[in-house]
# Entry
Amino acid sequence: MENNSTWHTQFSKGILELTILVILKKRPMYGYEITQSIRQDGVLHVGNGSIYPILRRLVEQEWISAYEEEHAGRTRKYYQLTKDGQTQLTARLTYTKELMHMLTRLDEEGADDAVSDN
# Structure
């Protein structure tokens, strides 16, 4: 779903942080690898370099940590989830699931209601 509305943009920015935490739960990754993982499903659209401010903020909050490793003559910065990050991830996923449950319930309750064009 592609939508250029302000709401869609703001919602996507908010969910991007959670998405990064979920991705890093699997294993440590470097920035480009994280971006590719996000792009894989085609749902969230992220530009090259757009995740780095979020990664810096997550490191400052100590939800992820960073370390450098040499690969093919280049230094890559890898990011990994911390214990505090796992705690935050669990809490945010629980909240997100509760929101989705509520929205689904409300949508299903309203499915039989006529939509007014007024």
Summary: Strands lie at 29-30, 64-71, 74-81. Residues 6-110 form a domain with the Arc Repressor Mutant, subunit A fold (CATH 1.10.10.10). The first strand starts at residue 29 and ends at 30.
